[in-house]
Specification:
The chain is α/β, with parallel strands linked by helices. Helices cover 31% and strands 19% of the residues. The N and C termini lie close together (10 Å). The relative contact order is 0.18.
Length: 278
């Protein structure tokens, strides 16, 4: 059987110009592109092979119209077994809070060759476009990437340690649980000099950056809903935003990224796909 190849590409956090040259080259030769919701649509317009079939496999934090990971794995296997070159386009970087392991396991189990192309992860894109150096000298020597998509992911002891570390804390996929983040850190007496930044739709034309004290969170942000994706930065480095910000907040309230396809899982039934491929 003539198998195709799987290329897993990090598309960056939004700005299409943050795509790597290698990623662009692979997109130009792709037969099938399985793209995340958080990959810039402009990347596909500018760099994708015009003859490639583009399939949206977006996710949005357990929303009902998100594509199950199992369906994505099966699409990869199906098309690669047909001899197609498949690009799996992921927002940000492919190895940071990504389901790349599941996709690699599917490829290995079916004898499919693969390549991994890194991208600019959301933390680095958001920090750069917000003027917040994550390990600025005199402010932090380390940075931690975390997620709190569920409020019960971290233990009480770990929250205590986070509140007292000098590391910059970056929370992915945590806009919906931000109140829990703030509560746990303030209950553990986090230093008042450590500030909070929420970066909405980082590196896109609709980027907005909001900063403030964790202890004033309820006065400033408690009734606000943040657009997805939003990234949270906590630490002394946030104080540098006012000095080094180089992009004004967007005045528009739009979403740069498309919503997940509602009918993808209906259109591609895994058992039928695998049956036809065998």
């Amino acid at each position: 059987m003539n198998r195709g190849k799987l290329i897993i590409i990090g598309a960056g956090p939004g700005d299409p110009e943050l795509l790597t040259l290698k990623g662009a080259r692979h997109l130009q030769s792709a037969d099938i592109i399985l793209t995340d919701r958080l990959a810039s649509p402009q990347i596909l317009e500018e760099f994708a092979n015009p003859l490639a079939q583009v399939i949206y496999v977006g996710k949005q934090c357990r929303k009902k119209n998100s594509t199950p990971q199992a369906s994505i794995n099966e699409l990869i296997v199906y098309y690669c077994l047909l001899g197609k070159n498949v690009v799996r386009l992921k927002g940000g970087d492919v190895s940071i809070f990504s389901n790349i392991t599941d996709e690699l396991e599917a490829a290995v189990a079916n004898g499919i060759a693969f390549e991994i192309v890194p991208g600019v992860t959301a933390a680095l894109g958001a920090a750069a476009y917000a003027g917040i150096p994550l390990t600025a000298r005199g402010h932090a020597t380390s940075v931690r990437f975390l997620t709190l998509y569920r409020a019960d992911l971290l233990s009480g002891e770990y929250w205590k340690e986070l509140a007292h570390t000098d590391d910059t804390l970056v929370f992915y996929m945590s806009a919906d649980t931000l109140e829990h983040v703030v509560r746990h850190l303030t209950e553990n007496n986090i230093d008042e000099e450590k500030m909070l930044a929420i970066v909405e739709q980082a590196t896109t034309p609709f980027q907005k950056v909001f900063t403030g004290s964790l202890y004033d969170y309820h006065l400033q942000f408690a009734n606000r809903t943040f657009e997805s994706p939003s990234l949270v930065i906590i630490g002394r480095v946030v104080n540098l935003h006012d000095q080094f910000k180089w992009i004004a907040n967007s005045r528009e309230d739009e979403n740069y990224f498309p919503l997940p396809s509602e009918n993808l899982s209906k259109a591609y039934h895994s058992e039928k796909l695998l049956k036809h491929a065998s």
